[in-house]
Here is the input.
Amino acid sequence: MNVDKKPLTFMILAVLAILVGTLLTTFIPLFVGTVSPSTEKVIPYKPLELEGRDIYIREGCNNCHTQTVRPLPFETKRYGSYSQLEDSAIDRPHLWGSRRTGPDLARVGRKYPAAWHYQHMKNPQSMYPRSNMPAYPWLAEHKLDTSDTAAKMKVLGYAFAPEDLAVLNGKSEMDAMVAYLLRLGRELKQ
Amino acid sequence: MATETKYEYDAIKGFAISSLFWGIVGLLVGILISLQLVYPQLNFTPWLTYGRLRPIHTNALIYGFTIPAAFSLFFFLVQRLGRTPLAYPGLAKFTLYLFNIAIVLAALSLFAGMSQSKEYSELEWPLDIGEVVLWVLFSINIIGTIVRRTEEQMYVSLWYILATVVGVAIVYIGNNISVPVSLFKSYSIYAGANDANVQWWFGHNAVAFVFTTIPLAVFYYILPKSSGAPLYSHRLSIVGFWSLVFAYLWTGAHHLVYTPLPDWIQTVAIAFSIFLIAPSWASVINGYGTMNGRWEQMRSNYLVKFIVLGITFYGLQTVQGPSQAVRAFSSLIHYTDWVPGHVHMGTMGWVTMTISAGFYYMLPRIYNTEIFSVKLANLHFWLVLIGQLIYSVTMWITGIRQGAMWQAMDSDGSLVYANFIETLTPNYPFWNMRTLGGVIFFAGFLVFVYNIAKTIQHAPAPQKA
Here is the structure.
């Protein structure tokens, strides 16, 4: 049989060739426990943290910051304990990143207080004169849009009480961003 | 002459011009974000911050430049290799308009920060649906034309075209399944490590089916055509094709070495990455074998220059890539500039040079004219070659430099460069060199566009049938 004379057969064979590796390394693991850890130990995002995470995504912070500490001595020394499957078990999407123009942020919530983040986000160069991070002063001026917050929490399946939403009143985008950054490294119940 | 096949060229011309236009846009954004890395005051407004512009750079050059270049060249190849006119010329023109509308909306949505955050898959769900519709319309024309072909045997280029058609569809849809919250926001259905695994299965196979099978389809056609030599080995191209299409899908997790993703998935990906050298080099050897005894054309034939340098960078790329997958080397260069240096050798070397050769070959033929200036084509060649080498080499150097600084520990176990900023600022001179390389490459691209524009301008007016 000459498959290069039969385009439809050829395409079916190509799809089958593509699907072997696809299923074995990517889609079957979706149903394997060792890749999908229990979420019992994970503290769900609070609405303010989730909104902060969405601003992190909107601003593309993941283009310069990773969120996965490698199990290597020089990494844990610099950033803290190495990342575990559980840390990101409820994260949709993941934000592990691929490039460290800036430092890894997986444990940054344990490193600095809120005031540090407010100052740094507003004007990074005031703290590190030669830093190349863009300044984000306008996040403090933008009122947080909360119109979809409840819908987001429902889609993601995070439990929340009505009073959790009330906290959002009068918050800025900066407040949400800092709340998210402070959560990083504190995902799991102790 | 009455029996000659009446080929359909309108959509081909439109996609070629769209590709060049969005190529200029994507490269300009690339130069701006390169400058922003050293001069943060160039982050003028929220819409022009690095975090939003970097996805515009990558998306513009993948979906705005490479994909319409493929639409254009593939619509040409299926007609010529099948000896039959395009199956649905009206549909092809409709696809062209829809494509440009979609790219404008995609750019605006990324400026506005609407993003799924997954690399090369940032576009939100309504645009994902638009892209899938475009791909289906494109595929109908490709498959329809191949089915109606009058040349019984499908040449190698058509295999790679069919692999592109099915491969892009599978990985793009697989990675973009999400639950919408509103028109502008959705969440991936995958969580954590699984989301990362699916993302890099997609990410690496976007490389396979956009940056590999597309230029390979062009390479296998243009090299014999421009050199006048038959393909070195048909058997080698068969083995190379099927092993490439089989092996690529296993390798995505080499982007996740030393992450929490289970080790066995990483190790399988590393092993298959090393295996992938074989099918990649099947094409390189086929190219060099074809040139055997005709190497003097590297002086005299500008098309051969582009295509042979292109396949040479493909060969270097496909050895460097697997070496990066190995844990020992990954621990040094992962997350550094080495990786963008690697990517840009592939895109600025292999992909763009091959597409350029394709356009230089195809466009004069469909406009029924000669290339405007071979001299300018040679200038284009040298500018993109020098620009790319400056870019890649400086990035490799600074990548190793920064990786080594991250690792450096004193004998007492403390970090030598404990403050991250100490490892960042030494990048700046290298990044200025990178910008210089990018500007030289961009100048070469402008020469290319000018040469094509002049070629089209000098074409004889089309005769009414």
